[in-house]
Amino acid sequence: MLKVIISDDEVKVIQLIRYLVSWDQFDMQIAGTANDGQKALELICAEKPDIVITDIRMPSIDGIQLIQRTLELGIHPFFIIISGYGEFAYAQKAISLGVEDYLLKPLKRKELEAVLLKIQKKYQSRQQIAQKESFLLSQLNESQEKIKNNLLTELLINKNSLIPTMDTISLQKEYGCSFTEAVTELLVLHIFTGSVENTTVNSEERGFLLPKLEKELKNRLAPFCADFICTQYKENVICLINRSQQAEEQITSALLKLKISILGYQNIYPDMRISVGVSSISLPLSDFDSSYQEAQTALLDRFNRYDQFLLIHHASGYAQDLAASLITSQDQRELISCIELIDIPGFTKKLEEIRRHLLPYLSDGSLVYSCYSKLAEIFLFGIKSYNSGEFSNGLNMDFLLSAFDHLFTFDEIYQWFSETCKTLLIQYLEGRKTLENKPIRLAKQYIMEHYNETITLEIVSREIGFNPAYFSTVFLKSTGQHFMDYLKEVRISNAKTMLLNTNKSIAEIASAVGYSDLKYFSRLFRKLTHLTPSEYRKLYG
C-alpha cells in the first residue's frame, strides 16, 4: 500500500481529507498527520511516505520549505498542495519544485480522487520501469558473470586454450577480468559424501550443496578480491581469485567462517566432509594447469593434516619412485597368487601389511595415491587374467579410484578397497562354481524336457558334450544322486501330478512318463511313495 501523510494547521481540514475519500480503493493508507511544518518533516523522515498532502501556509515551516527540505534529504514522494485563492503565487512555486498538483480550498472529493488516481497510475508506471531496469541490470550482471565463468570452464576443459597467453589488458577486454593485483590462486572445494556405491544419494547431495557453497564462497571471498571467478566443475566448486598480498589474512578468515557455516550442512548429512584445496601463488593465468593440479594435490594431503578443511599446497616431501619400494615385486607376486588361488584371507592379510607400511607417509597424499593406484592395477590385472571375462565387465580403475573422491580418511579408503576386493573375489568364486555347474544344469533341463522319451546316460552325455563316465561322476558329485535315480524321481514326480490333475488311466500315465511296462511302473511308484498309483490318487485326489 502507498503511505500518505497529511499536513495542515487546521485539524478540521486534516479530518476532512482523512474521511473525504476511500483510501483502500486506491491501495493507500494514512501513515500519519501533522499540524505544523516541522512535525511534518520529522514524520516524513520517519515514515518515508509515497504521498504528502500539505497546506502551503503552516507554522514553523511552510509548505514550500517542507518540500525543499524533503527533497534535499533525498526523499521524493508525490506532493499535493492545498492552497487558498490568495496563495496562487505560492502554488506556482510549488509546481516548479515538481509538485504533482494543487487543490483549492474548499476541497472537493472528485478533484482529490482524480489526483490520487493520477498518482496511482504514475506510481505503477514507475514500479514497472524500476522492475524492468532491475531485471535488465540483473541480466547484464549475469551475462558478465557467465562470460567470466566461461573463461574458467574453457581453461578447465581445453588444454590447448590460448587464454593463459593473454595479457591482463586482453583479458579485461575479452572477458571483463580485473587481474590488477599480484597474487592469483586457484581454490577447489570438494564434497566427500562418505559413500562410493550410493551414487544416487551422492548426486543428490552434491546437486543440493554445490550451488549453495558456490554462492557462499562468492559472498565471503569476492569482497576481498580484485577479481573473483567461480564455477562448478566435475562435482567441485572451482574458484580463481586475484588479490593483493595484504588480503591473505582476510581470505583465510573468510574461509574459516565458511567452515563454520558448513557445520550446519553436516547436521543434515553427517557422513559428509568438505575440504578446500588451495594452489600456490602464480601469475594470473600463465600456469593454470599446474595451479589446478596443485589444488587437487592439496586435497590428497588431507590424511595427516591438523586443518583438514583448508588444505594449502606444499611440495612433496618424498620421491614419487618411493611407491616402488613400498609395494615391491614380491608383494605384487603374492597378491596375484592370492587372486589366482582365490585365497581371500591371504589377499586381505597382504593388503593389511602394505597398509601398515604406508602409515608413516600419510602426510604425502600424492605418494599414498600412487601406492593405492598400484594396488588397484594389480587387482585388476589379477582378476582379469584368471577368469573368462564376464565377471570383470564394468570393473575398472575409475571405479576403484573413485574412493578418493567420496571417502575422507585413509582408513575409510583402505577399508573400502579391502572389502570391495574381498566381495569381488567371493563373487568371482561363486561365478566360477556356476560355470562349473553349467553342464549339470543343462543335463537336468534336458531330462525335464524329455523324461517321457527313452533317455540313457549316453544320450544325455552326448547332448552336453561330456564323456559318459566323466558325466556320471560329475553328476553324482553335484546332485548327490546317480543319474538313473534322478531320472526315476523326475518321472514319478510328473506321474504324481497327472494322477491328481487328470482322469487318465494308470497305464496312460505310465506311458506318458516313459514306462511301457505297467507292472514295473507300479512297483517303482510304490517303492518311492509307499503307495500304489491307485492308492495315491484316492488318498490325495
UniProtKB/TrEMBL annotation:
Signal peptide positions on this chain: none
Purpose: May play the central regulatory role in sporulation. It may be an element of the effector pathway responsible for the activation of sporulation genes in response to nutritional stress. Spo0A may act in concert with spo0H (a sigma factor) to control the expression of some genes that are critical to the sporulation process.
GO cellular component: a single term: cytoplasm
Location of the protein in the cell: Cytoplasm
Principal localisation: cytoplasm
Domain Response regulatory: 3-120
Any GO MF annotation of the entry: sequence-specific DNA binding
Pfam families in the cross-refs: HTH_18 (PF12833), Response_reg (PF00072)
Protein name per its UniProtKB record: Stage 0 sporulation protein A homolog
Keywords, comma-separated and alphabetical: Cytoplasm, DNA-binding, Phosphoprotein, Transcription, Transcription regulation, Two-component regulatory system
Database matches in CDD domains: REC_YesN-like
Residue ranges annotated for the HTH araC/xylS-type domain, each copy included: 441-539
GO biological process, one term: phosphorelay signal transduction system
Organism (species): Candidatus Scatomonas pullistercoris
Record flagged with keyword Transcription: yes
Annotated positions of the 4-aspartylphosphate modification: 55
